[in-house]
Write a structure and sequence with these properties.
By secondary structure, the protein is of the alpha/beta class. The chain contains 5 helices and 5 strands. The radius of gyration is 15 Å and the shape is globular.
């Protein structure tokens, strides 16, 4: 059974709400899922998971939250070559770099060799309406479908 980490940084609870929606959507996918905050993770712990979905809020003008700035730099230097990952974020469209922090995390994982799902889930503030909740569920299912297609492609080659 695959191990999946859903990790998040949150200030107002919005990104945690997204993480929990993703977790709930995947509970019947034959996965062992752990939900944690990003700031409590060590590189070795991330490396122990097959799948990682990580999310954060965006601070200021497209910045990572201060509590995970150093972690993102460390992660970019790590070896995540065995990890399949996806990224999500909450943000405010009134700022010019909407959900940019999630993209920063995605780039850090790519530099570390992770297999990165091409779509980033970007939620306006909180996933409190049906449309945004459906986006979260679709993102979760699409990520799992993508990971399985990647595995099938590797088996064929």
């Amino acid at each position: 059974m695959k191990k999946m980490l859903i990790a998040f940084a949150t200030m107002s609870g919005n990104t945690e709400d997204i993480a929990r929606l993703i977790e709930n959507e995947l509970k019947d996918e034959n996965l062992v899922i752990h939900l944690k905050t990003l700031e409590e993770l060590q590189i070795s712990e991330i490396q122990s998971y097959d799948l990682v979905a990580a999310g954060t809020y965006t601070w200021g003008d497209g910045d990572l939250p201060y509590e995970i700035e150093d972690l993102a730099e460390e992660w970019a230097e790590a070896d995540f070559s065995m990890v399949k990952s996806a990224f999500f974020g909450s943000g405010d469209r009134s700022y010019p770099k909407f959900c940019e922090a999630a993209a920063i995390l995605s780039r850090a994982f790519k530099r570390a060799g992770a297999d990165v799902f091409p779509d980033i889930l970007k939620v306006e503030l909180s996933p409190d309406d049906d449309t945004q909740q459906a986006m979260c569920r679709t993102f979760a299912k699409s990520f799992i479908k993508w990971t399985r297609a990647e595995e099938d492609a590797h088996r064929v080659s």
